[in-house]
Records
---
Amino acid sequence: MFRGDLEVKSNKLIASDTFEIVLQGNVVQQISRPGQFVHIKIGEGSTHMLRRPFSIADYNIKANQLTIIYKLIGDGTEWLSHRRTGENLNVLGPLGNGFEVEGIKDEHILVIGGGVGVPPLYNLVKQLSTQNHVTAILGYQSKDAIFYEQKFSRFADTFIATNDGSYGYKGFVTDVIDQMGVKFDQYYACGPLGMLGAVQQRLIDVDGYLSIEERMGCGVGACFACVCPAINEKGYVKICQDGPVFHSKEVTL
């Protein structure tokens, strides 16, 4: 596991209250699967005691760079949005268990993302698309919140849903699934718990994987701040350590 400083190569607004930051450093060499995350130290001094988890949207081993997409939701991400090229961020990671992609071939795969649950699916789609037919359904609040549509379209048949109908399909990602009427071999999803629960129920007979978003404390499974009900002998799983990716039959949402 890497713990140290990464250099900010770029940090820009890409949609309403949504930023893309590119970091460079040796943590990239240790990323093993799409869907993993990093813990970033926010602010100076003791203002923000806990690190913040951010999903890895993409990474480039040759360039030694990783990309993170984050939404402005408080003082911490506001501080992050003001980091400039050449500054350093203290990063711990990569953390968590990501999506399994090895050995998946010649399948029709559905990828479903909602809001800030979209980023960790981008590199997943890039990898899966090399040997599979991938369909992506991405949900956003409105047109001005949409990001990465063209990037996803390079690797997957991409459909957009907005809650207010200002772009693409009006409604939720599950509404798009219903309208498509297509059978899939597997699905992968990341987004708010409500969305994941609806997808889990809608695709109950399909083999699926869910990446669960949750506020975390330590990020390494020591503090029990991010547990989720599960079907195992303990009755729960730690999202940061056991996940954030789980088989759809493994957790209860």
---
Amino acid sequence: MNPAEILTNRPEGLYCPSGDFYVDPIKPVPRALITHGHADHARAGHGAVMATAQTLDIMSIRYGESFAEARQVAQGVTQVGDASVSFHPAGHVLGSAQIRIEQQGAVAVVSGDYAREANPSCASFEPVPCDIFVTEATFGLPVFRHPPMADEIARLLASVRAFPDRAHLVGAYALGKAQRVIMGLRQAGWDAPIYIHGALQQLCDYHIAQGVPLGDLRPATVARGSKADFKGSIVIGPPSAFASTWAQRFPDPVICFASGWMQVRARARQRGVELPLIISDHVDWPDLTRTITELNPEETWVTHGREDAVIRWCEMTGRTARPLRLIGYEDEAD
């Protein structure tokens, strides 16, 4: 069959006619296959949901046990209607997966969000050969070249040493980024307690239960003492908390933010970030183009970001590509 017939674009999202299911739909549908637990991909209200066990657990934490009428853990190759589906690590956040869909020998892979740099808080990306590769383009411009996370963590620790009387407040999204920063600190030898905002507690507890060694985490509250107790400490919270009185609890805080967008200086200034940390859980331009080159699919479908630049690169390198222009996907909300 023509591989391009495996998936079609509908208002609800990507739809597989032969399996009668959607992948990461933006509206409630009878049957959804979910790549990962971020809110712009995993929504509540579907009839049935198939995802990795970790993604289903994360959806339960975020939405409650009744987030779908039925749920199924993705294991091995599963027949859904006339399509065969399997889930493969995406390297984005805990439980994240690419979804491989096969019909009559033709294969499409929906990568969801993915990253190629090793992520100590989740399984690494697994290249999956395919005829159609659906890729994100969050950082789909040649200017985006993210440094190794270890380098950014070293900058954070250097600042902690330089300003021992100040607390360092790191803005990091609750699912994935916060745990990635914590693991980066642990790998760099930071064995001291790390203080976390209450909004991160459940997801951090779940990572620990899944074998991710986050170490000594403590509540970022002043109930135990005064502001002075946080001198020289590292505190991690969701970016939304930095606009509240919560951030005022700490001694002369150094405001940091961990995001691939911190490469854009204007964004750092807009957020009042003193120490921008370029730490991303998405592919940058070199890793995005490397992935397409390695997989060498018949067609590349591009969504979620700077589609035009990726399409142009594909054209210049003799590859067939098209934009999906799906509506409703954006950066993870706090």
